[in-house]
Write a structure and sequence with these properties.
The structure is a homodimer of 321-residue chains.
Chain A (H helix, E strand, L loop, with lengths): L2 H4 L6 H19 L2 H4 L8 H11 L6 H16 L11 H22 L8 E2 L2 E2 L1 H5 L1 H18 L9 H15 L4 H11 L6 H25 L5 H28 L2 H4 L5 H4 L5 H5 L1 H20 L7 H11 L4
Antiparallel strand pairs in A: 1-2
Helix pairs in contact in A: 2-6, 4-8, 5-6, 5-11, 5-17, 6-8, 6-9, 6-11, 9-11, 10-11, 11-12, 12-16, 16-17
Chain lengths: 321, 321
């Protein structure tokens, strides 16, 4: 018996990630294309699709899609369904890619001159540098719409109940009381001294909401108890915050080449961060505390297969870029 | 018996519009608010909500919401449901407002300096002039997300089947093979000589897709035959194109004060229009032909109550601003 199939004791996050990443990349490649968007009378313009593909493909750690797929696997294990390395349900793959499109659009808009005015992203020229500002704006707008297109295929493959639930979770996480709201707070906070509570609130919206939604959208691909749902909510909240704490630490400790984006920008822009507030050492302790909270939440979820979620939390907190 | 209730012969578009407009305005006022977006831990930032409200409230002819409500009324009449002037189903009101949020966000982004760089909209300063570019960008992004939030309430008021169908229609109409795609073609067309076919294709996406989606989302609020659905598709396509032909004519014939936006911009920017292609007179004839197509489509729909849809088509083509 293959070690990957034989049981949870031998779970290998590297193997799991590689297999699932490949499926995500293939799905994004297929769905973010001129063909997919073309209808009978001729569809999306090639230039727009090119900017969208540039923003989405061949880059990114795909943390959010992997969280969706890991949570979907945990949720499906609750109902006795056993996923293996060779299949991923269509609904989970669509949810994974939809979240990534929202993340990608937010980066495109965030990099624009009127926002962070960044020219480097994942080691490449940002979308507006490559395609112009107007095209970057439209590509971001179209990516957000495409996320909801992915969640609502016009066939019977995904029950209406799941389509509606996934749109609901994603819309809330992306909007004014989620990611966009957090970015607005971020915008208003430059040069302002925030309390730790305010800083947590900003990041809970700006990055936490979409990370947590990734977990809950995965859960919505299965049928989990309310106890498990609550536990996954806690897990999502903890890793969402931990992600930002580590991000702030890396902005100080890593260089631009490692990060694939401009390092040291927070301090340059006089933005409040967990490092500026807590100092580097205490920020590191805080990140480990949040990791412990996330793992404890998984333990009380009652879900049989949470190894991928555990591994992703550990990787997220202990990452070096 | 009240004339409004007694039958179709006495239908009065002015009365119908006034009643339905009021409901749309009240619903937008209620839904685009800090309260609505606030959750237990504190939600959307006030500044972002202020920019979103500025973009949406107290302005606009609400053509798209009225199309949704008119089509919903026609669709419901097919199943023998009789709507009166005092009630509008929740699902239709949500669909109407969702479409308007997409329209409003598109205007905010369209007015940005990197796009049309317009300072006047509906006789008021544009959102970026009032709130700054970054806030305008985020407000537009958040409005798009909020549209999908409106369509996916977390209760049993709207069946999952309708929630999914409405999200599907709206996402396609807003995205790369709809509105955003049309704007990208528009962007690339400045100073380029388009054929009539290419011009139609551009506008079919840029403005037509969302107008047609308004009609089809209304239809999705009821249960219509495929014959009626096809007829409404044709109606939506015809008025979508007619809207743009008339828009191009008004850009030449009306002044900025009447339009509430800068007139004569198309010619200044050397953009291809139906007037530059056909001349003013033939453009007018074309608009009337499209109106006749729209009315013929309604006649073959088999739906009992299409008076509001008829009236809106006539108003749209014969408007002076």
């Amino acid at each position: 018996m293959d070690a990957r199939v034989s049981g949870r004791a031998t779970f290998d996050l590297g193997v799991w990630s590689a297999a699932h990443l490949q499926r995500v990349e293939q799905a994004l490649e297929r769905w973010v294309s001129a063909d997919a968007a073309t209808d009978a009378e001729g569809g999306a313009p090639a230039e727009l699709i090119a900017a969208m593909r540039y923003a989405v493909l061949d880059g990114g750690k795909r943390l959010r899609p992997l969280l969706v797929l890991a949570a979907a696997q945990a949720a499906q294990s609750a109902s006795g369904e056993r996923s293996d390395a060779t299949s991923t349900p269509e609904v989970a793959l669509r949810a994974a890619c939809a979240v990534e499109l929202i993340h990608a659009y937010s980066l495109v808009h965030d990099d624009l001159p009127c926002m962070d005015n960044d020219v480097l992203r994942r080691g490449k020229a940002t979308v507006h540098v490559k395609f112009g500002e107007a095209s970057a704006l439209l590509a971001g707008d179209a990516l957000q719409a495409m996320a909801f297109e992915l969640l609502t295929p016009d066939d019977d493959a995904i029950p209406d109940r799941q389509q509606a639930a996934l749109c609901r979770l994603l819309a809330r996480a992306a909007g004014s009381s989620g990611m966009a709201g957090g970015q607005a707070i971020d915008l208003a906070s430059v040069g302002v001294a925030l309390t730790e509570r305010q800083l947590r609130q900003m990041h809970r919206l700006k990055t936490g909401a979409l990370l947590q939604a990734s977990v809950m959208m995965g859960a919505a691909c299965g049928d989990v108890s309310s106890q498990a749902k609550d536990a996954l909510m806690s897990y999502g909240a903890a890793i969402g915050l931990a992600f930002q704490v580590v991000d702030d630490m890396l902005d100080v400790t890593a260089d631009s080449a490692t990060l694939g984006k401009t390092a040291g920008k927070d301090a340059d822009q006089d933005k409040p961060t967990f490092v500026s507030l807590l100092g580097l050492e205490r920020a590191g302790v805080y990140a480990q505390e949040l990791l412990a909270q996330a793992l404890a939440a998984l333990a009380r979820s009652g879900l049989p297969e949470t190894q991928a979620l555990q591994g992703l939390a550990q990787r997220l907190v202990n990452r070096s870029c």
